[in-house]
């Protein structure tokens, strides 16, 4: 759900900003009257009165303080809203299925967290406060002018109205311009996010010049759209300057025709300055509003994407016990109509050609993917009714793509565990998994692991997932085909560990674990209507 714009105390912050803008308007009006009194004193060759001078100085200080306070409050308001959006997007991401997340380009996902958040922050931090400033300070200017000399209003108000209409009508084009810039910027972000991680390989494939031309082509389109938007916005910002000049001429002309004193004319000219900045900022308000509107539509669409069915406070599985698994007319493309039962404690070899659905089946069992139809039960409980915490504690997955955040090796080996074990236990499990050589060459558990484990080999990442499994007490062990990247000693270590586990095991045939470990074999075949062949193996040997 999209966070409320003025929720979480932001309405109160906005009221505070409005109060500060009103105080700024009052101080600006007082400064205009003080200016009139001082100019009258100068024109009459009198000594300068102390009170108007003090009032002018205090007004200037108050205006400065109010602007700083309003801008700070507005920025805090914008940052708080951006934080709420960030939480909403991340929570949505954690609730999406892995297949849906993998279907999104990395650049577009990062844009939600960078470009769009800037648009949200700027609308609350700059757009709304500046809109309020215009609403308060432009009428304040007219009020001060009318107080000084009523005819001033009759000539200045039409000029202000013309400027506001020009800015309003011209601003109608900004949303489409903003969407065009945003779309082209997103395309470049997605292209760069896709290509930078494999830039050396692209160079080796001889694609450097081709990719450079692609970047140039997209960048030229982005630059063209950005310049068009900036030019249009700057034209709108220049309208108040033209109107200010015309208004100043009108004030002087009225003053001359009506034989007004110099102080009144100077005060009126000073009052015109009150409206100049907020009127100029209105073009920026349109720009921020257009960016906010485009980002809001995309963010709403992102938050409405399908989520995995989760059961808050759902059912719990019995811990430290092997799980039975049943597939009932399970539909999970490319798998359709899968029916099979795996008894608790069984060890199943999962076979099938590439693309048969083995990895997606394991994703679904781990609670990371959503079924398109049918059901999966664990110990008789529907998978959709089980809590994420229960699935995390009862099911482990071994493969070359475990979730790894940048940090120490200790953090990588224990990520996802309810409680971090002591270093002795971690080192013992790492030794069993075959990470001895890595621990000897690195700074033990303080070794820095890059994001995603990029500075580790595929086999080392598999062993990290093995250590996590060893430090858990799972009821179901899933061994993905990517675990085949283990070396011979790693395969043997995995086989030895599996043989001693009181858990149900499902392992991809590609991992090449010893056949005597298994008692069942499930073969997924897209060519067959049933999509599965389940056979019982002749014998199973436990080490």
From TrEMBL:
Subcellular localization: Cell membrane
Q: Which domain of life is it from?
A: Bacteria
User: Any keyword Nucleotide-binding?
Assistant: yes
Q: Sorted alphabetically, which Pfam families does this protein's record hold? A: ABC_membrane, ABC_tran
| Key words of the record | ATP-binding, Membrane, Nucleotide-binding, Transmembrane, Transmembrane helix
**Residue span(s) of domain ABC transporter:** 320-540
Q: Where does the protein principally reside?
A: membrane
Its transmembrane ranges are: 52-70, 131-150, 156-175
The GO molecular function terms of this record are:
ABC-type transporter activity; ATP binding; ATP hydrolysis activity; ATPase-coupled lipid transmembrane transporter activity
Question: What does the entry list under GO cellular component?
Answer: plasma membrane
**Residue ranges occupied by any ABC transmembrane type-1 domain in the UniProt entry:** 14-291
Kindly give the membrane topology term recorded for this protein: Multi-pass membrane protein
InterPro entries, per the entry: ABC1_TM_dom, ABC1_TM_sf, ABC_transporter-like_ATP-bd, ABC_transporter-like_CS, P-loop_NTPase, Type_1_exporter
Q: By its UniProt entry, which PANTHER family does this protein fall under?
A: ATP-BINDING CASSETTE SUB-FAMILY B (PTHR24221), ATP-BINDING CASSETTE SUB-FAMILY B MEMBER 6 (PTHR24221:SF654)
Q: What's the protein name? A: ABC transporter ATP-binding protein
Phylogenetic classification of the source organism: Bacteria, Pseudomonadati, Pseudomonadota, Gammaproteobacteria, Pseudomonadales
């Amino acid at each position: 759900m999209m966070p409320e714009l003025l929720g979480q105390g932001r309405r109160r912050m906005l009221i505070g900003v409005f109060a500060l803008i009103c105080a700024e308007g009052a101080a600006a009006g007082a400064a205009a009257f003080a200016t009139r009194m001082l100019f009258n004193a100068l024109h009459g060759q009198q000594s300068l009165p102390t009170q108007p001078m003090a009032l002018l100085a205090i007004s200037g200080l108050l205006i400065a303080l109010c602007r700083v306070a309003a801008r700070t409050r507005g920025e805090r308001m914008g940052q708080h809203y951006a934080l709420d959006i960030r939480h909403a997007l991340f929570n949505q991401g954690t609730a999406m299925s892995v297949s849906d997340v993998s279907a999104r380009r990395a650049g577009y996902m990062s844009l939600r967290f960078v470009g769009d958040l800037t648009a949200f922050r700027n609308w609350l931090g700059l757009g709304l406060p500046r809109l309020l400033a215009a609403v308060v300070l432009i009428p304040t200017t007219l009020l001060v002018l009318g107080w000084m000399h009523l005819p001033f209003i009759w000539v200045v108000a039409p000029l202000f109205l013309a400027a506001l209409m020009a800015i309003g009508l011209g601003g109608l084009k900004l949303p489409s311009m903003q969407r065009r810039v945003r779309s082209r910027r997103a395309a470049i972000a997605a292209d760069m996010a896709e290509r930078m991680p494999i830039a050396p390989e692209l160079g080796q494939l001889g694609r450097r010049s081709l990719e450079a031309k692609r970047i140039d082509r997209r960048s030229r389109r982005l630059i063209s759209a950005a310049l068009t938007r900036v030019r249009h916005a700057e034209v709108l910002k220049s309208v108040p300057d033209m109107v200010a000049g015309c208004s100043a001429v009108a004030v002087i002309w009225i003053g001359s025709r009506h034989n007004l004193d110099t102080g009144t004319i100077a005060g009126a000219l000073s009052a015109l300055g009150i409206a100049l900045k907020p009127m100029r900022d209105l073009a920026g308000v349109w720009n921020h509003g257009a960016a906010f509107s485009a980002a809001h539509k995309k963010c709403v669409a992102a938050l409405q994407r399908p989520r995995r069915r989760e059961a808050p406070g759902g059912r719990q599985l019995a811990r430290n016990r092997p799980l039975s698994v049943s597939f009932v007319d399970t539909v999970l493309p490319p798998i359709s109509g899968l029916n099979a039962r795996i008894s608790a404690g069984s060890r199943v070899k999962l076979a099938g050609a590439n693309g048969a659905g083995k990895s997606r089946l394991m994703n679904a069992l781990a609670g990371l993917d959503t079924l398109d139809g049918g059901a999966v039960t664990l110990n008789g409980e529907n998978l959709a009714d089980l809590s994420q915490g229960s699935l995390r504690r009862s099911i482990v997955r071994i493969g070359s793509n475990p979730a790894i955040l940048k940090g120490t090796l200790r953090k990588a080996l224990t990520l996802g565990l309810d409680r971090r074990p002591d270093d002795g236990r971690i080192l013992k499990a790492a030794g069993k998994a075959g990470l001895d050589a890595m621990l000897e060459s690195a700074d033990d558990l303080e070794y820095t692991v890059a994001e995603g484990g990029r500075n580790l080999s595929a086999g080392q990442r598999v062993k990290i997932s093995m250590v996590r499994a060893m430090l858990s007490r799972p009821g179901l062990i899933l061994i993905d085909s990517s675990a085949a990247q283990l070396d011979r000693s790693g395969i043997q270590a995995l086989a030895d560990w599996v043989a001693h586990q009181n858990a149900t095991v499902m392992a991809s045939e590609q991992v090449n674990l010893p056949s005597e470990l298994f008692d069942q074999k499930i073969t997924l075949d897209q060519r067959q209507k049933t999509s599965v062949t389940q056979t019982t193996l002749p014998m199973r040997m436990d080490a």
